[in-house]
Every structure is written in structure tokens, then in C-alpha cells.
Specification:
The protein has 243 residues and is α+β, with helices and mostly antiparallel strands. It contains 5 helices and 10 strands; from the N terminus they run ααβββαββββααβββ.
Length: 243
């Protein structure tokens, strides 16, 4: 009886394995729907993980993962938004456009997600075939949030049934558009007069933004965040170095 019991347990386990992995005794559409959900869940986990890892670095480096002209500060390459003009307090405005920042963020996220997804879920799957295309991302702004849409061009096939992987969209608290507008005001003031009235500006904005400035000689590092948000944009203003 013990041997019979063990055999029955093995047979039951094999039945459920075959049902789950090969789709035996399951409608093809139901089977493919279950498999596509696993791929979509993996894609969503990748988006969350990559953005959580990269957004802080992106923001603290002036919206650039690899700036060419920067100040090394607290382990980050903080991009110069305003370059020194020799002999005068004003500087040359180098602030990137908001669309350039969004493009940079999108490239960084897309590269990370392509290295993150579990290709084993779509290549050589048990009980189904897969037609695998490109994985692309699209970053956009919506109010106080950054939206990341990941579109994995994958179709999984069983017999005549085909299931496409649905795009995944994830939202992150990051009022990039609003803090960028503040950065524009700061850089314009620095470029025009070589100075920015930090406290007066915050009063005029009724406390909606917090602006901190550090002055590692001879530069300035501005840090901007909106009230009740942890997202903080950093950028540098280049000062004149002594001979």
C-alpha cells in the first residue's frame, strides 16, 4: 500500500505539472493567458526595479546618466547647467530641455529593462511557441508622476491560439516637470545676474518648493524638491577657479 500511495502521489504530481506546463486538459486560450500573465508580471517587476534603482541617480546628476560636463559631488556627477564666464559673475546657460531629460531617462530605463527580463519565459517555453520582437519603453509626465510604459512585442502560440503580451505601465512619484521649471528660473537668474534669491523665491512660491544650495568651491550645487515629494533634482553652477 505504501508503494501504491507513492506511485499515486507521483502520478498526481505529473498530472498537475503537465497541466500547468504543457496545457494538458486546458483550453489553449486559458493556458496562454496564464503564461502571458507570468511574462507581464516579470516585465512589471523589471520596470519597478530598474526605475527604483536609476531614478535617484538620474535626478542627482541633473537629469543625465552620463554627463560630459559635471562636478563630482557626494558620489554623483552633477551636471553643470550654467558654465563659468571668465572674469564676470554671470554664467552661460547650458540647461537641457525637459524633452532631452525625458529622452535620457527613457534610454537608461529601456537598457536596464532589456537586461532584466527573464528571456526563459518566452524562449523555449513548455507547451507553446513564441514569436519574440523588441522591448521598448516610453517615458511621459503626468502631474506629479513619471509614467513608464514598457511594450514587449511577444506573441505566444499554441496551435491556432495566439496571445499577445500587453504593455505594462507603472507610475512613480516624481514631479519632474515642476522642479524643472524651478531649475529654469534659477539658471536664468544665475546667467543674467550671477546670483539667485533663494529665500525670496521660496516665499513667492508659498512653500511649494524647497531649494537648498551648497557651495563646494568654486561651484554651487542646487537641490530642488517639491513639498511632500522625495524626488530631488540636483544641478551645478560653475564658478571661476583661481589660477
Amino acid at each position: 500500500f505504501a508503494v501504491i500511495g507513492i506511485v499515486l502521489v507521483i502520478l498526481v504530481a505529473l498530472f498537475f505539472f503537465a497541466r500547468s506546463e504543457f496545457g494538458f486538459f486546458i483550453e489553449p486560450t486559458t493556458f496562454l493567458s496564464d503564461k502571458s500573465k507570468s511574462i507581464e508580471d516579470n516585465l512589471k517587476d523589471c520596470v519597478n526595479g530598474i526605475v527604483s534603482q536609476s531614478l535617484d541617480k538620474f535626478a542627482k546628476q541633473g537629469g543625465d546618466f552620463a554627463p560630459n560636463n559635471f562636478r563630482l559631488y557626494q558620489g554623483f556627477n552633477v551636471k553643470y547647467f550654467c558654465s563659468n564666464i571668465e572674469g564676470v559673475p554671470e554664467c552661460t546657460n547650458r540647461i537641457p530641455t525637459l524633452s532631452e531629460m525625458i529622452d535620457s531617462l527613457n534610454r537608461g530605463i529601456e537598457g536596464g529593462i532589456n537586461n532584466c527580463v527573464d528571456e526563459g519565459l518566452v524562449n523555449g517555453g513548455f507547451g507553446y511557441d513564441a514569436d519574440v520582437g523588441a522591448l521598448t519603453t516610453e517615458v511621459s509626465l503626468s502631474g506629479n508622476s513619471i509614467l513608464v510604459k514598457a511594450d514587449y512585442d511577444v506573441k505566444i502560440i499554441k496551435g491556432e491560439s495566439i496571445q499577445s503580451i500587453r504593455p505594462v505601465t507603472v507610475s512613480f512619484d516624481a514631479p519632474l516637470g515642476e522642479v524643472y521649471s524651478v531649475a529654469v528660473d534659477i539658471v536664468n537668474a544665475e546667467a543674467r545676474a550671477g546670483n539667485f534669491e533663494q529665500l525670496l523665491y521660496m516665499l513667492n512660491e508659498r512653500g511649494q518648493f524647497v531649494i537648498n544650495v551648497d557651495k563646494p568651491y568654486p561651484d554651487k550645487i542646487y537641490k530642488i524638491n517639491k513639498k511632500d515629494s522625495d524626488f530631488e533634482l540636483w544641478f551645478a553652477v560653475e564658478g571661476e577657479r583661481g589660477v
